Structure of TrmH family RNA methyltransferase:
Amino acid sequence: MARDLILITDPDDPRIAAYRDIRERDLVGREGKFVAEGKTVLNVLFSNARFEADSVFLRENRVEGAQALLERVPQHVPVYVASGEVMDRIAGFHMHRGVLAIGRRVDTPGVENLLDSLPEDALVVALAGIANHDNMGSIFRNAAAFGADAVVMDQGSCDPLYRKAIRVSVGAALKVPFAREGSAEGMVDALMARGFEVLAMSPHGTVDMTEVKPSKRMALLLGAEGPGLPPHLLERLTSVRIAMRHDFDSLNVAAASAIALHRLWRGEKR
Amino acid sequence: MARDLILITDPDDPRIAAYRDIRERDLVGREGKFVAEGKTVLNVLFSNARFEADSVFLRENRVEGAQALLERVPQHVPVYVASGEVMDRIAGFHMHRGVLAIGRRVDTPGVENLLDSLPEDALVVALAGIANHDNMGSIFRNAAAFGADAVVMDQGSCDPLYRKAIRVSVGAALKVPFAREGSAEGMVDALMARGFEVLAMSPHGTVDMTEVKPSKRMALLLGAEGPGLPPHLLERLTSVRIAMRHDFDSLNVAAASAIALHRLWRGEKR
């Protein structure tokens, strides 16, 4: 069954107000909404029940390629279409992707509630001070690829539903459940109280990543490049290093997450 | 011994012409020059002999923190300093890093010559169609961290000395030797003729990465996300997969390089 498409010809049309000046709005927040971009990301948005969408907005030359996607869009979600010229004027820059949706944030459950919902066998990614949206998106992408059950983070970490973080995550930020706790300490306390072995990644870790033995409940704790994890946290936990050259001792935090999660993943049956 | 610093007060001063309108120039090329940004990157530039620099340019509030770096700058390389306001007008945008250098490209040796210069035990990264500067920079960073001896690439891959690629590589693009060959096939031929086992990374590879046995001369061949490596290349080579969830079968090429290079690295003694 073909979808009704609503043609937008006036950049000031109030129905597409949420798409206006996309970049400027990233800076001031979106009052409970987020922007999803790209066919792959929208496929994730409409394939799981975690988030609802307000609308979809397509560049007209992308409609034909988006038919399979449109079959997933619930009937009550309006699908707007505009010419490239009108879409660019609405967005405020050249939107070469031209496949957009506005999603609605949901109340996240809080770290303790999220952890309580996990199975007995679980792998969690814990983030302290990950303030860069590229890194946040990349870490979610790796978490989804290697089957992490949840991501928890402190208040010093940035928003996984920021436009760029969702895009870099290729939709994983909409797929892997996450929650936020005030402090890194509180997050670690909540994990340990539930029997998680918390592995703290650190260039000076005492255990090499290749020697880590996977256990039933594992959490991988990652801090920002540069400052790294606070010393008082490292002291409480098993600290894990990734061996590399001493004269180029520098790995991006997302690359470190890829190596560590690949190592900890126990395959599809988890 | 303190360095002479040359104060620039006029944004039109011809001595800093190479720093003018930095972003626009990225698009038109730099006639044999490149821009290095940030203290870490400049430390790499001035710690190895591969490239020469024309000049260094510092924001005045960064001079104090750059003393150790300045000791590495050869005496014949002028060091310019400007106020934040003047530097921003020269660069054409807000240069919050404020630590810059112009380097000179050198003639790269060609793939065959570069491969001929490598030791008997060698690890090479081979790139086909890596057109994104973020990915290029990240792959160089991982190559440096895990001791790759060289990077070779086809003409469909982007320039590792593009400003953003150098920055994302944290200087690794200035450290790890690289060369460019016309086609991916020619590059693979050159590797195989020199006894390299070429591992082609592919989501549908026949061997799991964790089962790869390191050999003396290994090359890791990476293609662009999406198209991946051409089928006729995959047929000739050992194709290697990284196992991941079937419902989120998507790993960034730089993340894949991190996992594979970490696996192939044989430690500092190489």
Summary: Chain B is about 30% helix and 20% strand. Chain B touches chain A at residues 40, 134, 138, 141-142, 144-147, 170, 172, 175, 209, 242-246, 248-252, 254-256, 258-259, 262, 265, 267-268 (CB under 8 Å). Residues 133-145 of chain B form the longest helix (13 residues). The first strand of chain B starts at residue 6 and ends at 7.
